[in-house]
Amino acid sequence: PKGTSPLRFILMVGLVIVLLIIFAIPSAMFGAAGRGGGGSEVLVSWAIPGKEPRELTALQFQEELRDWTSFYDILFGGQAPRLTNDQMAGILILGDLAEDAGVRIPDSEVTRFLRDYVLPGFGGAANYKAYMDRRRGYSPKTFEETLRRHLRHTTYLMLMGYLGGRPSSDDVVEAWQEQH
């Protein structure tokens, strides 16, 4: 270029080349080596006895984490603590255990929970719908599907608790006599 020293021009071109080497080549190498980027490698896997192992890629795991984090933020009015990866893995495993045990949540139970617990927090159905319309990437359908999964988990845990707290027949007779 006219009016500039050739040394300054060479230094600028050299600086641009060095910056390209520093930032472009390592990221391409890490992407080719399977690190960072892709999200297609298996991040977590588990197996329930008698079932096929289940695997989630990093991308699928992050989608689950996003959905559950959004669910808890809505359910607890933004006061829910952030889920860790270990907690998220536990939620997914618990969901598979509940499903394997045959725990099902009917539409009526989801509707009742929404009506009794969620909608009052929003001041009614219209405010709930308006709030969900403003949340991009998280629809009422996704919230309600996650709510169904949450109710399945809590029902399963409750049923498992009943198994551990089974009273003896003597305890039942004694409690009945005390009450009658």
Topology:
Layout: H1 6-32, E1 42-46, E2 54-57, H2 58-75, H3 85-100, H4 107-122, H5 125-134, H6 140-164, H7 169-179
Antiparallel strand pairs: 1-2
Describe the structure in your own words.
The protein is mainly α. Helices cover 68% and strands 5% of the residues. It has helices at residues 6-32, 58-75, 85-100, 107-122, 125-134, 140-164, 169-179; strands at 42-46, 54-57. The protein has a two-stranded antiparallel ribbon. A hairpin with a 7-residue loop joins strand 1 (42-46) and strand 2. Helix 4 (107-122) packs across helix 5 and helix 4 crosses helix 6 (140-164). The mean pLDDT is 85.
Give descriptors for this structure.
single chain; 180 residues; mainly alpha; two-stranded antiparallel ribbon; 68% helix
